[in-house]
Amino acid sequence: MLETGQSHQWEVTTPEGSVIDIYSFPFTDVDGSPMILKMDIDVTERKQAEEKLRDSEEKYRNIVETANEIILITDKESIITYVNKKMVDMLGYTLEEFIGKPIWSFISEECKSVVKMNLEKRMRGVSESYELKLIRKDGSSLWTFLNAKPLFDKEGKYIGAMSMLTDITKRKEAEEALNIIEAARKKEIHHRIKNNLQVISSLLDLQAEQFRNRENIKDSEVLEAFRESQDRVVSMALIHEELYKGGGLETLNFSPYIRELVENLFHTYSLGDIDISLSMDLEENVFFDMDTAVPLGMIVNELVSNSFKHAFIGRDKGEIRIELYREESTEFESENCKSTNFILTVSDNGVGIPDNLNIEDLGSLGMQLVASLIDQMNGELELKRNNGTEFTMKFTVTEKDNLAQVGLSSQESR
């Protein structure tokens, strides 16, 4: 050491188990004589702490690498900085293909909007859990349930997230299989109900024919009663037919149903030489469940039938108009339920209802049924007499009980 002039450091363990770091430094005193400074430092506690830290790191590394869940860490830009062996095995990529890549590269297109929405919450410190579909290297899907926790530095700045994902692919496949079975079951139910209602309609038609052939039956009201009952049965049968064609869904695309219902009524009523035109302005992609669609369909049936029967007496032409649209700026949320107000209008340019008669005074079975159905839907009905008759109904649907999706409207005329 004196010859080289270099310092040395070495470690010794005492018989008692203590660890000593020994440092030797060569130097010269004031008269130039070479000397050595020796310093001993007990580093036993530090060595023990380092050993515990290594053991702990090894233990947790083994836990993470052998976990049944995918574990990954992303930085604040959603770039992957760590993945465990499970993610490598389940997605089929190498470790190098993950590290440094954006997490979006491995997420299905349908889930990206949900991930972006939750990422904004995560940056505000919110932990989240949701279902996420990943895409394997071979293009197949891997459904997972994700639990993500945001990570922050000492200054409280967001630096990324740690996520744990559990494979739920088998569960999702089982759910899909059950959904297919349930949809087929509902489709079959709607098919049978539709057929049964058609049988009832045919029986009413046969019974009316018998009355028509009897010489002692002179009152046309008897035959009209049968036809009205038949129309009501058909209005319900059409709903089940539309649901059947839609694969047994619980909601009905209402505008196509109304078109078919009104077309059927147009062909049912024989008005001789009277030229009747139909005009329908129906907002598209409005879906109602059975609790809304059935009474609403019957209301349209009664009001349109009423126009056919009474509006154009003594006239050689006329028009019946039907409108369905969402009332603007009426979407609101309460108690996690989204509600929307709708307006349904059935009008004609016929002879109109006398000014001295109110809705309550229209004592026909059809109008009584309309009033009852509107009360059932908690709706409001308004009668106007401007150049004919106009019935306007306002009602509300909620997403909690009824899926209502509203798109663009289209104008159709006949």
Automatic annotation (TrEMBL):
<keyword id="KW-0418">Kinase</keyword>
<dbReference type="InterPro" id="IPR003594">
    <property type="entry name" value="HATPase_dom"/>
</dbReference>
<dbReference type="InterPro" id="IPR005467">
    <property type="entry name" value="His_kinase_dom"/>
</dbReference>
<keyword id="KW-0175">Coiled coil</keyword>
<feature type="domain" description="PAC">
    <location>
        <begin position="6"/>
        <end position="55"/>
    </location>
</feature>
<dbReference type="InterPro" id="IPR011495">
    <property type="entry name" value="Sig_transdc_His_kin_sub2_dim/P"/>
</dbReference>
<dbReference type="InterPro" id="IPR001610">
    <property type="entry name" value="PAC"/>
</dbReference>
<dbReference type="GO" id="GO:0016301">
    <property type="term" value="F:kinase activity"/>
</dbReference>
<dbReference type="InterPro" id="IPR035965">
    <property type="entry name" value="PAS-like_dom_sf"/>
</dbReference>
<dbReference type="Pfam" id="PF07568">
    <property type="entry name" value="HisKA_2"/>
</dbReference>
<feature type="domain" description="PAS">
    <location>
        <begin position="56"/>
        <end position="126"/>
    </location>
</feature>
<protein>
    <submittedName>
        <fullName>Sensory transduction histidine kinase</fullName>
    </submittedName>
</protein>
<feature type="domain" description="PAC">
    <location>
        <begin position="128"/>
        <end position="180"/>
    </location>
</feature>
<dbReference type="Pfam" id="PF13426">
    <property type="entry name" value="PAS_9"/>
</dbReference>
<feature type="domain" description="Histidine kinase">
    <location>
        <begin position="188"/>
        <end position="399"/>
    </location>
</feature>
<feature type="coiled-coil region">
    <location>
        <begin position="39"/>
        <end position="66"/>
    </location>
</feature>
<keyword id="KW-0808">Transferase</keyword>
<dbReference type="InterPro" id="IPR000700">
    <property type="entry name" value="PAS-assoc_C"/>
</dbReference>
<dbReference type="InterPro" id="IPR036890">
    <property type="entry name" value="HATPase_C_sf"/>
</dbReference>
<dbReference type="Pfam" id="PF02518">
    <property type="entry name" value="HATPase_c"/>
</dbReference>
<dbReference type="InterPro" id="IPR000014">
    <property type="entry name" value="PAS"/>
</dbReference>
